Amino acid sequence: MTSESAENVEPGTVRPGGRTARVRESVLLAAGDALAEHGFDRLDLADVARRAEVGKTTVYRRWSTTTGLIADLLDDMAEQSSPRTRTGSLAEDLRANARLVLSTLTDPRQGALFRSVIAAATCDARTAQALHRFYAVRIKEWAGCVTEAVERGELPAGTDPDEVIRAVSAPLYYRLLASGDPLDEAAADRAAEAAVVAAKAGTFVR
C-alpha cells in the first residue's frame, strides 16, 4: 500500500494479521462488552483500551473515534456470524433463521449490544452505514434458502429473496425495540410461518 492510499483508508477498515490481529480481536471484544454494559453514550476509547489491556495510543491510532470502533466491530460480527441452515425446506430454513435472530436478540450480551448500536445508528451516519453493511451481509447469507425454494417450485418465480428474509426478522426487532412484547420461540416461529405464507402467496414477487 502506498503512503497516499494509506492516508485515504478509514480507521478500522484494514484487516491486519499477526500480533495486530490479536490486538484487534481483544479490542473488539472489549468494545462489545463496554457497549453491552454501558451503551453508546458512555463508550470511551480509553476504557476500551484498559479492558483490552492494550495501550491507549494503539486504540486511538487505529480507530480514532468511537464510531470508527463500532463500524469495525459490526464488520467483524458480520464476518463471524454463523452460516445459514440448509434443510431442503423453506419453512424449516426460515424457522432456523428466526430462531437464530431470536437467540441473538435475547442473549444478555448480544441483545444489549444490538440495542446500543441501533440507538447509535439513529444519530450517527457512519454507525448507520456499518449497521446497514452488517445486515446486508446477513441477508445475503440467508437469501439463498429463498432462491433454492424458488428453484424447487416452493415459491413463485420472481420472489425477492431479500424481502422474504427481512420479513422474518422484522417482527422480532419490533418486539425488541418498540412493543416490548415477549421474544420467545413462539414469536420466532410465527414470524417465519407468516413469511412463508406471504411468500407462497406471491407477496414478495418483484
TrEMBL record:
The superkingdom of the source organism is: Bacteria
Pfam families in the record, alphabetically? Answer: TetR_C_11, TetR_N
Q: Which SUPFAM superfamilies match?
A: Homeodomain-like, Tetracyclin repressor-like, C-terminal domain
Keyword Cell cycle applies: no
The alphabetized UniProt keywords are: DNA-binding, Transcription, Transcription regulation
Residue ranges annotated for the HTH tetR-type domain, each copy included: 21-81
Extract the ranges annotated as region (Disordered). 1-20
Q: Which residues fall in a coiled-coil region?
A: none
Report if keyword Thylakoid is assigned: no
Q: Which regions of the protein are recorded as binding DNA?
A: 44-63
Q: Which Gene3D superfamilies match?
A: Homeodomain-like, Tetracycline Repressor, domain 2
Q: What is this protein called?
A: TetR/AcrR family transcriptional regulator
| The organism's taxonomic lineage, starting at the top | Bacteria, Bacillati, Actinomycetota, Actinomycetes, Kitasatosporales
